Amino acid sequence: MKKLTIAAFLLALGGVASPEALAESGRRRDAIVEVVQKVSAAVVYIGTEHIIEPRYRGSFFDEFLGIPSERRRQSVQSLGSGVIIDPAGIIVTNDHVIHGAAAIHVVLADGRQLEAEVVGSDAENDVAVLKIQSKSPLPAAKLGTSSDLMIGEAAIAIGSPFGLKKTVTTGVVSAVGRSFKADGRVYNDFIQTDASINPGNSGGPLLNIDAEVIGINTAIYASGQGIGFAIPADKVRRIVAELTQFGKVRPAWIGIHSRDLTASIAQSLAWDRNYGAAVADVESSSPAEQAGIRVGDIIAEVGGTRVEDSEDFNARMRGYPAHTAVNVAIFRDGSIRNISINTTPFPSKLAESLAWERLGIRVKPGQGGLAISAVRPGSSAAQIGISSGDMILKLNNQPMSSMDVFRDAMTSALGARSVLLVVRHGRFSYNLSLPFSRFE
Question: What is the percent of the chain where pLDDT is above 90?
Fold first, then answer.
């Protein structure tokens, strides 16, 4: 009887691949497979627990049976994705994945489940940073750049759609600098991709063929197919730096007040395009004035992508924290000029004068909120019926507990077209929307 070698014996049992099979797998291991094998260990599943209070105070039978209110609350589970960008356990995900969570846990590729703490979160830019503790360094993905993305280049999404962990979808970069409207809100400066993104993909990475994170998947276009959106890596990097260092994003101030381009304004400035925002005012001693921006300039691009209108420009600026350089392309005297503006924090001393100028109110500390001490005649506040003695309970859903909170809220509203106030007048409280833009 012919003796089998150990290799031949294992081959017969299917334990060792033949040279032909190995060669075949080598041909199948293309660039996308290599990206997935390199990065998937850094992609995590994020589970959150939300406590939902009942809309009623408990039934008669609950009280009768002595069931405590804690047991009448409902615990709701939700899911999302994230990506480790630092071996020390720093994870990037979406704000909406973890917003309002009572508990957050992260499941790693090796099956470990770890509790996560929130380092910082920014709802405006929908970015959150988490931290998990591990005794050994964790696999991490490289955060790349989105400044050189090419339309049509390969895009790879990894996440946990519908809880299906480590799901990979592929496509291309369909567009950059994309803006769209959903749920009554305008979303700005996104990467558009046709790589399938579904609920649960939120917070996961969008990758290029070099295995670099070029975006964080965040949204889908509900009424269409093959239309997904990701936050560009360059914006993510700016926000992550702010959140890890300060726990929040310090709003940038450049001192430009813009307005939409009308046909007559565009014609007077010899601008023959259908996009852009006109500079209507430049604040004295502001970063924009120091950089040479003038009234009558047309802002054509920010960060290399074109600006559609004034709202688009203001939204893009909210993606830049203080103390960063913003590259803008402006049209002046028949030619395009590239200018770099070094942003600064909005001077807090100007916040109260901003409220007087834009809203027409002055405030002071009061019981349970801020008391309105004066209303400017003819202002939007006066026209809507706000009067001295009324109380501001919230501004843009932020409880007004102190003057510092009020100043921060006013600063965060820079560039917004309107603000939402909760005002108490006598025994009743009202939700009021007031125009905030100088040129609204």
Answer: 57
Element (H, E) at 364: strand 361-366
Report the relative pairing of strands 369-375 and 391-395 from DSSP bridges: antiparallel
List the structure tokens of 400: 């007004």
List Cβ<8 Å contacts ≥24 apart for 49-55. 49/75, 49/76, 49/77, 49/101, 49/102, 49/103, 49/104, 50/75, 50/76, 50/77, 50/78, 50/100, 50/101, 50/102, 51/75, 51/76, 51/102, 52/76
Please tell me whether residue 404 adopts helix, strand or coil conformation: helix
Q: Could you give the CA distance from residue 45 to residue 102 in angstroms, rounded to a whole number?
A: 17
Q: Which of 320, 323, 322, 410 is nearest to 361 (CA)?
A: 410
Rounded Cα distance between 40 and 222, Å, is 27
Report the distance separating Cα 307 and Cα 347, nearest Å: 26
Of 249, 248, 253, 273, which is closest to residue 263 (Cα–Cα)?
273
pLDDT of 252 above 90: no
Given the DSSP bridges, would you call strands 142-143 and 212-220 parallel, antiparallel or unpaired?
parallel
Distance CA(93)–CA(91), nearest Å, equals 7
> Which stretch of DSSP H or E encloses residue 20?
helix 19-28
Gap between the Cα atoms of 206 and 215, Å rounded: 5
Contact criterion met (CB below 8 Å) for 98 and 79: no
Average pLDDT over every residue of 256-269:
91
Helix (H) or strand (E) holding 327: strand 325-332
Concatenating the DSSP letter of every residue in 241-307 gives HHHHHHSSPPBEE--EEEEEPPHHHHHHTT--SS--EEEEEE-TT-HHHHHT--TT-EEEEETTEE-
For the annotated catalytic residues, the residue numbers are 96, 126, 202
More confident residue, 325 or 5: 325
List pLDDT tens digits, range 37-54.
Answer: 999 999 999 998 877 665
Residue 397's CB is within 10 A of a number of other CB atoms, namely 9
> Cα–Cα distance between 121 and 99 in angstroms, integer?
8
Q: Is the pLDDT reported for residue 55 higher than 70?
A: no
Residue 373 has a pLDDT of 95
Highest mean pLDDT out of 1-10, 225-234, 332-341: 332-341
Burial of 125-154, coded b for 16+ CB within 10 Å and e otherwise, reads: bbbbbbbbeeeeebbbbebbebeebeeeeb
What is the value of pTM for the model shown?
A: 0.76
Question: What gap in Å lies between CA 46 and CA 205, rounded to an integer?
Answer: 13
Domains and CATH numbers, the chain: 29-246 (2.40.10.120), 252-345 (2.30.42.10), 348-435 (2.30.42.10)
